[in-house]
Amino acid sequence: MQESREEKLNYIMGKIRPFNDFPSKGVLFRDICPLMKDHKALCATIDLFEEYVKQTYPMVDFIVGLDARGFLFGPLLAQRLGVGFVLVRKKGKLPGPTESVSYTLEYGQAEVEVQADAVEKGQRVLLIDDLIATGGSLHAACELMKKCGAEVLGCLVLIELKGLKGVERQGSTPVFSLFQY
Ligand SMILES: O=P(O)(O)OC[C@H]1O[C@H](OP(=O)(O)OP(=O)(O)O)[C@H](O)[C@@H]1O
Ligand SMILES: Nc1ncnc2[nH]cnc12
Ligand SMILES: [Mg+2]
């Protein structure tokens, strides 16, 4: 029997495990490893993203995933949608000409990179990651895609940490999340 959206959400939620004080004191880490390990939860997760994207963005050209945990969901979703997958990587991992954007972390700087020929001007992309916290990573990746000439339709995440206001940081770019904590 086909499960409802609510049933899928409840099942997936049971596979997200909280860890206190990881990776540093005061952080409540949302661990998705049990979800990845469970075939039913993984399928349900991709089902829910697929359903949303087919209804909302049938014109999407590429799914763009963020290194590293965005790579867990992005290619599975892209395959379901019948589109390609583009990798946004942490600095220094991609060969050939690249474009990059640097951004500020709580302590220090970080940089994300994409291959310069990854997208063509005007191509429509959706970004995907496991989680949005402060929104710094997704914001930098969106800026990177715009720098390459892509049209950013929106962002997809499994988890939104509402208290950190990461969605507000994305300005007018819509962010779709399956769970909000
Ligand atoms: O909204 P933000 O404050 O930018 O935080 C969210 C990001 O932090 C984590 O990535 P991280 O780079 O820590 O680890 P990963 O390499 O395992 O994805 C998470 O996977 C998101 O990408
Ligand atoms: N609380 C959290 N849990 C899992 N991944 C994260 N990335 C940033 N904050 C996180
Ligand atoms: Mg990440």
Descriptive account of the structure:
- It is a single chain.
- The model has no long low-confidence stretch (mean pLDDT 97).
- This protein is of the alpha/beta class and 181 residues long.
- It has helices at residues 5-13, 33-37, 39-56, 70-81, 136-147, 166-169, and strands at 17-20, 28-31, 62-66, 84-90, 98-104, 109-115, 124-132, 151-160, 175-180.
- Strands 5-6-4-3-7-8-9 form a seven-stranded mixed sheet, sandwiched between helices. Strands 1-2 form a two-stranded antiparallel ribbon.
- It has a single domain (5-180), classed as 3-Layer(aba) Sandwich (Rossmann fold), CATH 3.40.50.
- The structure holds 1-O-pyrophosphono-5-O-phosphono-alpha-D-ribofuranose, adenine and magnesium ion.
- Adenine binds at residues 27-30, 131, 133, 161.
Quick gist of this model?
With 181 residues, the protein is of the alpha/beta class. It contains 6 helices and 9 strands. It has one domain: 3-Layer(aba) Sandwich (Rossmann fold), CATH 3.40.50.2020.
Summary keywords:
single chain; 181 residues; alpha/beta; Rossmann fold; seven-stranded mixed beta sheet; two-stranded antiparallel ribbon; 33% strand; binds 1-O-pyrophosphono-5-O-phosphono-alpha-D-ribofuranose; binds adenine; binds magnesium ion; transferase; UPRTase/APRTase; PRTase-like; purine salvage; glycosyltransferase
Q: Let me know the number of strands.
A: 9
Our Rg estimate from Cα atoms comes to: 16 Å
Question: What small molecules does this complex bind?
Answer: 1-O-pyrophosphono-5-O-phosphono-alpha-D-ribofuranose, adenine, magnesium ion
Note the gap between the termini.
30 Å
